[in-house]
Amino acid sequence: MADFTPVLKAVVPAAGLGTRFLPATKATPKEMLPIVDKPAIQYVVEEAVSAGLTDVLMVTGRSKRSIEDHFDRAYELEEALHAKGDDERLEAVRESSELAIMHYVRQGEPKGLGHAVYCARQHVGRDPFAVLLGDDMIDARDPLLTRMIEVRNQHGGSVIALMEVEPDQVSSYGCAAIAPTGEDDVVKVTDLVEKPDPEDAPSRWIIIGRYVCDPAVFDVLEKTPPGRGGEIQLTDALRTLAGMEPEDGGQVHGVLFRGRRYDTGNKLEYLRTVVQFASERPDLAPEFMPWLREFVAAHEG
Fold it and tell me: Rounded to whole angstroms, how far apart are CA atoms 13 and 59?
């Protein structure tokens, strides 16, 4: 019988080396790079919490201790801000430590996303869970994860977020072969390919960094050999699940996402994200936007 246990836990893989942002990430985790004045990883945890997931497991690695510190209390800093009467900054500092019940496990070796998710097995147990990748930020006005949990509650199995891209972009992502259902934003996933050549891609719908996984994924990951790049790929495990029977935790559905997504995995997209967030901040936009317009005008042509 399919498992329709409520989704209450979130797993956030954050063990990557962040080589695209060197030398900044030599001593600072990429996930802690700020989007204006808040680390990118906090936006991801906030998204999980807004979807009702307050049990969050962070899969980290060496040199990632500052992530744990960020979501912990900072008593000396709080006391200093309290003594100064700086209630606004005091609230901002406390916010991250009060978001969720945070847990941590280390991924000893960088063996791929599938291995990072497998590291969560003991904590997750036999419960369904969400996976949120720190490189992908979903606008808070677009409740993608909430919708994915609804689809999981309706159909069981696993659910992935899909976004349509231009053909020349599919080789950078996992790509899905899909079949329609009776719902406009929900499809059945019939096959998955990790980073295919454009001419071999089954569609233009790529997997973005949000998943809701049936616990059956752990048994599959345990037997999944290294795939593309010599790493254990979550895409390969999901492909196996797509071909399994629902009573065994199989089948995969996709939610077609047409909202606002920010990719902070490379420098250009990271800069775009910072500018977009700053442009919408009521405390910054009145001064930032006129300066930005002048700057762009001065450099056009």
Answer: 5
CA 289 to mean position of chain CA atoms: 29
Give the C-alpha separation, 33 to 36, whole Å.
9
Mean pLDDT of 240-259: 92
CA distances from 193 to 215, 216, 235 (A): 21, 20, 7
Q: How confident is the model at residue 3 (pLDDT cuts 50, 70, 90)?
A: low
Here the tokens at position 293 are: 């317009």
The answer, yes or no, to whether the previous bond of 167 is cis (omega within 30 of 0) is no
The pTM of this model reads 0.92
Whether the per-residue pLDDT at 60 is higher than 80: the answer is yes
Q: For 272-287, what is each residue's pLDDT tens digit? A: 999 999 999 999 999 9
> Which of the 8 DSSP states describes residue 97?
H
CA–CA distances in Å: residue 292 to residues 25, 282, 296: 27, 15, 6
Going 69 to 75 to 76 to 81, the CA torsion angle's sign is positive
Query: What is the C-alpha separation between 187 and 179, in angstroms, rounded?
Result: 6
